[in-house]
Design brief:
The chain has 283 residues and is of the alpha+beta class. It is built from ten helices and ten strands. A hairpin with a 5-residue loop joins strand 5 and strand 6.
Length: 283
C-alpha cells in the first residue's frame, strides 16, 4: 500500500495565486494514476525513486518521460496524463495544485510547458529551498490560509529561480543543459547497453525532441555520436593495450565481436585487427 498524506486547501478567495490541494506519497511498486486531466496546474517533485510520465503535448501526441529523484513535472489544465511508479524503485513525491490569474505567467517564467513539462534544477540550494517550501505546506495543512499562501509564494519564487537559473532567460541555455546532460551520460555509460531512448529518458525529454535538439547542436544524430564515441574509445584501446578484439568490443558496449568488427570497419575503413597492426604503440 502507498503511504499518503493529502490535504485540501480550505479557502479559494485568492485571485492572483491560490492553492487547491497538496500532499505527499510514497508509492507502492507500479502504482499509477490516470489517464486523467486536471482543472488547474499540478506540480510533482520526486524526492526519491523513479517513475514515468505519459502526457499529451501541444499537438495532442502522448509523450513519455522518465522522471527521477531531484526532478519534477508539471501537469497543465485540461492536459491528459498518466504517471506510473517504477516497479523496482517506486518514487516518493510531494505535490501541489495551484491556479490563479498569474499562474500561467509563473509557469512560463519557470520554463515549463506542455511540450517541456519536466523540472530540472542545477542550483542545489534553490532546489532544496523549493522542496522545503513544498514540504512545509504539506506538513502544515492546518495553518491559516494566509500563512499557507505566503509559503506558496515562497515555493513559486524558488521554483522560478531554480529553473530560470538554467535558462538564464534564453531558450538556448536550456538546450545546452540538456545536451551537456546527454554527453555526460554517454561518457559515463558508453560501455553499457544504452539506447537513444534511454538517454532521452535520462534527460527527461521525449525521444523525437531530444534527437532534434541533439543533431542541431552537435551536428550528428545521437546514434551517430554514440557510435563514433564508442569507436574512438575502441581505437584507443587497440592502440594502447594488448586486449583481445573481443575484449575491446566488450569494453565499448559490443558483446558480439562480429557486430563490433562491422561497426569499427564502417567507421575506420578497416577491421580492428588490421587497424591495430598499423597503429599499435609498442614499448
Amino acid at each position: 500500500m502507498s503511504d499518503l498524506i493529502f490535504s485540501v486547501f480550505p479557502n479559494e478567495n485568492f485571485v492572483d495565486l491560490g492553492l487547491y490541494q497538496f500532499g505527499k506519497e510514497q508509492c507502492s511498486p507500479a502504482h499509477s494514476f490516470g489517464p486523467a486531466s486536471r482543472n488547474h496546474f499540478l506540480f510533482h517533485y520526486v524526492v526519491s525513486g523513479t517513475g514515468r510520465l505519459f502526457a499529451d503535448d501541444s499537438k495532442g501526441i502522448t509523450c513519455e518521460y522518465q522522471i527521477r529523484s531531484g526532478q519534477g513535472f508539471m501537469l497543465f489544465p485540461r492536459q491528459i496524463s498518466t504517471y506510473i511508479a517504477d516497479k523496482n524503485l517506486p518514487w516518493e513525491y510531494v505535490w501541489l495544485e495551484f491556479d490563479g490569474l498569474r499562474a500561467k505567467e509563473i509557469v512560463e517564467i519557470a520554463g515549463l510547458s506542455v511540450d517541456n513539462p519536466v523540472y530540472h534544477a542545477r542550483p542545489k540550494d534553490l532546489r532544496e529551498g523549493m522542496y522545503q517550501e513544498l514540504l512545509y505546506i504539506v506538513e502544515h495543512g492546518n495553518e491559516s490560509p494566509f500563512h499557507l499562501i505566503g509559503h506558496l509564494y515562497l515555493f513559486i519564487d524558488y521554483l522560478s529561480r531554480s529553473s530560470a537559473g538554467l535558462r538564464l532567460s534564453q531558450k538556448g541555455r536550456m538546450r545546452d543543459f540538456y545536451i551537456k546532460e546527454a554527453l555526460t551520460y554517454i561518457e559515463q555509460n558508453f560501455q553499457n547497453d544504452i539506447t537513444v531512448e534511454g538517454i532521452a529518458e535520462f534527460c527527461g525529454l521525449n525521444r523525437s525532441y531530444f534527437g532534434r535538439i541533439f543533431k542541431d547542436t552537435i551536428g550528428k544524430s545521437p546514434q551517430e555520436f554514440l557510435l563514433n564515441y564508442r569507436m574512438v574509445k575502441a581505437a584507443e584501446l587497440l592502440k594502447l593495450t594488448g586486449l583481445s578484439i573481443a575484449d575491446v568490443g566488450n569494453a565499448v558496449g559490443y558483446p558480439n565481436q562480429l557486430h563490433f568488427s562491422r561497426a569499427f570497419k564502417h567507421t575506420y575503413g578497416m577491421a580492428p585487427r588490421e587497424w591495430r597492426n598499423k597503429n599499435q604503440v609498442t614499448s
